[in-house]
Amino acid sequence: MGCWTHLPLTICLLGGNNGPDFARSICHVFLNQSLNDEITDKELLYTELLKKDKLEGNFQSFGLLHALRDPKFLEQFLIFSISRANELPKFPLIYNLI
């Protein structure tokens, strides 16, 4: 599927109903952090797609990976990843990226 290559799919997934699942997958694949003992089917799917992209050297993240270098953005991202999807407006740095 090439998760990173479609028109800002990264951004769409973060803003969608499964945004926290996708955020946890990003944390697992790119930050080597596992934030949840129970992995949802969506999170597993996203993780596999991201691992495939990473193995193929496809790092087109529309600015997300760069933004994760900022400590304040990273902090919000980690908290967002364990939140509910409808809580996105509580995370202004992520909300502005989307």
UniProtKB/TrEMBL annotation:
It comes from the Eukaryota. This is Uncharacterized protein. It comes from Gigaspora rosea.
